[in-house]
Amino acid sequence: MRLGGQLDRGPLHRRLAQDRVPHRGGDRAAAAPRRPEPPPVGDALDRRGLRHHPVGHRGVRALAPGRHRRIGPRDHHLRRGIRRRGLLGRLVPGRGHRPHGHRRLRPHVVVQPPLPPDRGPHLVLVPGATGIRADRTDRTAAHHLLEEVITVSTHPVLDWSRSAEHLRRSHGVTTDPRPDEDGHYPCVLTRGSGTRVYDLDGNAYLDLTGSFGSVLIGHAEPAVVRAVTDVLSEGNLFYTGASPRRLALAERLLDWFPWSEQAIFYRTGSCAVSAAARLAQHATGRNRVLSSGYHGWHDWHLEAVPEAKPKTFESYATEFHNDLALYRSWLDRHGEEIAAVVVTPEPHRFDHAYYQELREVAKEHGCLFVVDEVKTGFRAGAGGFSALAGIEPDAVTVSKGMANGHSISAVVGQRQLTQELSEAHVWSTYQNEQVGFAAALASLDFLERHDVAAVTRRTGEAVRQGVLQLFAEHGLPVGAPGWGPMFELDFDAADEGLAERLEAALLRHGIFCDTGDDFNMMFHTAEHTDELLERFAAALGDL
Amino acid sequence: MRLGGQLDRGPLHRRLAQDRVPHRGGDRAAAAPRRPEPPPVGDALDRRGLRHHPVGHRGVRALAPGRHRRIGPRDHHLRRGIRRRGLLGRLVPGRGHRPHGHRRLRPHVVVQPPLPPDRGPHLVLVPGATGIRADRTDRTAAHHLLEEVITVSTHPVLDWSRSAEHLRRSHGVTTDPRPDEDGHYPCVLTRGSGTRVYDLDGNAYLDLTGSFGSVLIGHAEPAVVRAVTDVLSEGNLFYTGASPRRLALAERLLDWFPWSEQAIFYRTGSCAVSAAARLAQHATGRNRVLSSGYHGWHDWHLEAVPEAKPKTFESYATEFHNDLALYRSWLDRHGEEIAAVVVTPEPHRFDHAYYQELREVAKEHGCLFVVDEVKTGFRAGAGGFSALAGIEPDAVTVSKGMANGHSISAVVGQRQLTQELSEAHVWSTYQNEQVGFAAALASLDFLERHDVAAVTRRTGEAVRQGVLQLFAEHGLPVGAPGWGPMFELDFDAADEGLAERLEAALLRHGIFCDTGDDFNMMFHTAEHTDELLERFAAALGDL
């Protein structure tokens, strides 16, 4: 039985249906050729395993020529200036280099990121300036040179040949309906450290995706790495599910959501929401679910992704597309069939009163109210989005940001819901992996100790405002709705293709993002807001 | 639409429906009080963090009294004998101990498992003999003492007070519909090393569950630990999905299943089979799935777990309960609606010809044939069960044993199936975790280098035969159908309650298993077959 016919779907839903899925498929593939091919670049590694890129032409021209000299390890002011920007870790002496196709040796700067020196191939090289006048080796000169270093470093001289080769080899053997499948991105990200990700070719990017928002406190955060390492030698998975780490994490989650009574664990957000839906069915003896927003890829929720829906499959879930009138009328007509209302917060579209009203109406009809906080649960700070909105749900589902990229998710709820576990058969083999618990405990420690939510809200808002200002300066009608810690770009009023061109330009200028998805701030971005906006500005000048 | 009415369900299905789910719920809870309460035991840790258990009475009585002396570190023959049995790692000098409620000090043996000495609290102590006659300190004496050590160590003097306290605290806060929920087991397993698991109270058990069969090469196998540790500092998850580890693992899987063309990855077995079902729908343009066996907890498969099924939910999947006549008739009547046949191998019930016939009939009707090798894919050796049965499916789903307890699963199939990815929307955030790839690559190395499948088949068969012989000797009508590497106990002809009593006795005698589930052999069991059977024999004498 289906509760309604064809509906007017909200704008977000339309994007999901019309833009997002093809966006990862055919449309993007067609758009791909517009992206300029990376220029052929010398690819040799020197004896130290460092890669040398030639200097981009614009960077070279922008330098005032004068007496040239190499920039050496004693140029403390340069190194300090570079460090202060949080851009680069260590300045090492440049050496003469013969770029591919050029006859003349050019001195250049080699900059290493703050990484263990034994990590060989993923050192990042920033092609340096051709020279600097000797009489300007003061702080101003240092600053100017640094500007040039940055300008040069963000020039479209990125070499993606290894990534390209890998994608060619990989696609036939293993694939994934994610951006990489259609060569959406020319690079293959293989390493991360803090806010930065690095591709197979050694290029570095500021990461605005946070791996779908799951890496909230920075890639390879040492506290999380240590916690997981400690677990491994004790074994990861046992037949009994209870464990001190599970208990400790559950207690932390009950503190985080103070209205909650029990926490149960899964590996993915999709699974947690699926479990919550079934638990609600058992707790209420009702069979249908009324939902809005995206809740993962499982069958019950396919109505949100019409392309994926087999023709004759009918789910027990119905979308109300955030249409409050429709929501009310469905509950009035079918309230006693609805086990739960499941909503994903969209703080950039609806105010808190909207969610309070959703909850109130659900309660009037005896439905459980579940907030899908997979994205917002930790990004929003203690209590998740629910606390911001001033509501107490019957359960929340959480995952992203809980364990900084390690797969774990949870249903945190009232005992009324979770007590139905034995009957509802919502369990699986890997539910109690110790790695996930350890990673989550270390991440929650970090979130609380550093007040990550407050920091990302502040820095994220600065980035959001900065981005909006840059769009305005360039006369581009692009919006940035959302919160600081998680906003998206709105290209509705912009020329077709701008989203793709911008994404490609940002990539060339050292920013990794998906202009069709959220921009997820990470904790460390506090240090990198200026750099991010500088790179953004450079990209807008190079669309 | 449903293809058939109420059916005669096969014996396994009946067990699933009638036994297994309540088995984890009410029935077991009711049966629990039969289990004897652990006796009160001194629980103090000494300065070295070692726990001292008093000697079990039967063990003490069994020793011929004589001149007593402590067993010291120079008793090489003892240590060698102990090592040869694979039971214990290192003999450390015993010290006088005043057991709770006893006045006289008793010398005893303290035995450490082969673990890093800095692992403090999880040292395992085996209560030792009260003494040994000086004139018997030869190999025979060593052997006799060893017998005693084993006898004493397997006595029902286990202290589960910490586990009990943990379960009491834990249950209200976090729970899980797995055996621990209802106190099915009195112990909480928190550490594993090789074939052994250890509970919160420091008791050691030979693990016959292999954590649901997923830990195939031993808990905390160092090669896997190293591989995962190496990954952590490079970051675990990135926005792009392709990576050298994913490609390497996919290539390994295509070698493992030589007929296959592509591999795609998920975190759990349930998710992999769900993805395969949807991919088949997209690949064929048909909507229904015909299945037998257990394929996880997701909605489409709820018919296999009737308790969990909301009353009005209708899935696109139909169980044929391994009824070949029914299978044929459904395909004859509805063949062109069936996208795929999905079967879980049950080698203890059906021969290879049966699966060959299933495949043949499916192909006649243009259905894809998917073998759910989540349990068998690696346990059965290269090619999985499909290779043993001489069939080439269109896809297999694999998970357990692939990454030795780390959550990863895969659909390995023909490109016809996997190419539908973009359309089928079967992706999720954590699909490309590096930890899973690294753990799987290290595990596959190990599986191939040590021919794990052959070893577990050999040792498992020895255990299965040994267990059958012991049941016969004790006049217990219990069967052990299955393969060596994975068999189950059949209590159909036995007294009610025997399964529970046996499980409790095995636990007291240092064997951790679930008599209602598979007995999964691990690789290291090669070294421990004798010990396992000795413990089993002791448990049968103590039912």
TrEMBL record, chains A, B:
Any Pfam family hit: Aminotran_3
Gene3D superfamilies: Aspartate Aminotransferase, domain 1 (3.90.1150.10), Type I PLP-dependent aspartate aminotransferase-like (Major domain) (3.40.640.10)
Composition skew (Basic residues), residue ranges: 49-58
UniProt-recorded Gene Ontology molecular function terms: pyridoxal phosphate binding; transaminase activity
SUPFAM superfamilies in the cross-refs: PLP-dependent transferases
Record's compositionally biased regions (Basic and acidic residues): 16-27
Domain of life (superkingdom): Bacteria
Region Disordered, annotated ranges: 1-58
Alphabetized PROSITE patterns for the sequence: AA_TRANSFER_CLASS_3 (PS00600)
UniProtKB keywords: Aminotransferase, Pyridoxal phosphate, Transferase
Requisite cofactors: pyridoxal 5'-phosphate
Family: Belongs to the class-III pyridoxal-phosphate-dependent aminotransferase family.
Protein name: Aminotransferase class III-fold pyridoxal phosphate-dependent enzyme
Source species: Streptomyces kanamyceticus
